[in-house]
Design goal:
Mean pLDDT: 96
Oligomer: single chain
Number of helices: 15
Largest sheet: 8 strands, mixed
Bound molecules: adenosine-5'-diphosphate
CATH superfamily of the largest domain: ATPase, nucleotide binding domain
Distance between the termini: 12 Å
Strand order of the largest sheet: 5-4-3-2-1-6-8-7
Shape: globular
CATH topology of the largest domain: Nucleotidyltransferase, domain 5
Order of helices and strands: EEEEEHEEHHEHHHEEEHHHHHEHHHEH
Strand content: 15-25%
Amino acid sequence: MNNDTILVINCGSSSLKFALFTAKDFDCVASGLAEKLGTTDAFITIKKGDNKTTSNLTCSDHSTAIKHVINSLKEMQLLTREPIGIGHRVVHGGESFSNSVRVDKTVLAEIEKCAALAPLHNPANLLGITLMAEFYPSTPQVAVFDTAFHQSLPKASYLYPIPYHLYTDHGIRRYGFHGTSHKYVAEIAASKLKKPLSECNFITAHLGNGCSVTAIKDGLSVDTSMGLTPLEGLMMGTRSGDIDPGLFEFLCKIGMNSESISQMLNKESGLIGVSGETNDMRTLFELAENGNERAALAIEVFCFKLAKYIAAMASSLPSIDALVFTGGIGENASQIRAMTLARLPILGFKISSQLNECHGAESDGRITDPKGTLALVVPTNEELVIARDTLKNAL
Ligand code: ADP
C-alpha cells in the first residue's frame, strides 16, 4: 500500500486539472492544471509541495496533456507504478446517479445520456475517462458526480412550475451542482459540532467563480440554488443567476438569439456584468476601495442576492445548526461574509469582526458570537472527496 496512489482528473472542454494522492493517508503529493488546450497558448502548471513549474503545451490536445502529466509524475518518482484507482469529476449524473460509481460500459452509456443536460461538461468528462482508459486499461476508474448529493431533493424543490411533461419527457427539473463540496463541508461542520451529519441542519454556501447555496436537513440536501444547469440561483463571477424568464423574449426582440443570450448570461453577467471590470472578487474590492462605484455596486448586489438565498434556504429547515462558508470567496472574503450576515439578523447571526477577519482561524472556523446562530468558514477540498470515493469504489 505504501507506494499506492490515486489519480484525480477533472477534464474540462479546454482544460485538465489533476491531483495525485497517496492511497495510505490521502496526502496530495502533486497537482496541476493544463489550460487553453487545443490553442497555440496551451500551457500546464504542475505543483509539488512549494515547487511550481509551468511548461508550454503549444497546440496540445487533452491526450498530449495527459501524457505530459503522467510522464512528469513518473520523472518526479511520484508515480512509480500505475495508480490503484483513477477518479473523475463528472458534472451531470442526471437522475441516474446518487453516489459515486465504478465506471463500466453501462455507466459510460448513462453519462453519455446525461450529456444532453450538460453539453459543455459531460463530453469533456467522458473524454477524460476514455483517455485514461487508454493509458491504464486495467486500472479501475470511478465517476464522482456534482449532482449526486442533490438527488435527495424533494419533488417540491426540484420541479419547475412548467408543463409536467417537460419533466417526464425531457428530464427538465432542478438537479443542483457543487454537490461534492456541499457534502464535504457539511461533514467537516458536523465533526466540529461533534454530531453525526444525519442529525445536522446546515446551510452551506459554496462561493467560488461559480456560486451555490444548499439547505441540508438531517444530513441530506433538501434545496439548492442551482437548477437544470449551473446558471440558476446566485449571482456569480460571470453568470447572472436568477433572472426574469421574460427577459428572453425582450432580448430576442432587440436582435439577440439563443446563442448570444446564453453567452451573455453565462460569460458576460454576474460580477463582471455589473462592474464592467472583472469577475475576480479580490480585484473588485481593490477597485471599490479606489472609488470605483460600479465595482462597489457589484459587491453589494452579490451580497444582497446571497443573503436573500440564505434566507430562502432557511425555509426548508426546522433550525439552523450552522451556516457554512466555503470556496475562494467564502473562505477568504471577510467583507462579503460580514455584509451578507449584516442583512440577516432575522436568522440570529451576530458576526464577530475579530473572528471573521481571520476567517475563523483561531476559533475552529467560527466567525460568529456564541450567543447567536453559528456561522463557520470551512475550506473545501473536492479533489480529496474524489480521491476517497475512488478508493472506496475501486477496491
Ligand atoms: P473556482 O470556482 O474557479 O474554483 P475559487 O473557489 O478559487 O474558484 O474562487 C475564486 C474567487 O475567489 C475569485 O473571485 C477570487 O477573487 C476570490 N478570492 C480568492 N481569494 C480572495 C480574497 N482574499 N478576497 C476576496 N476574494 C478572494
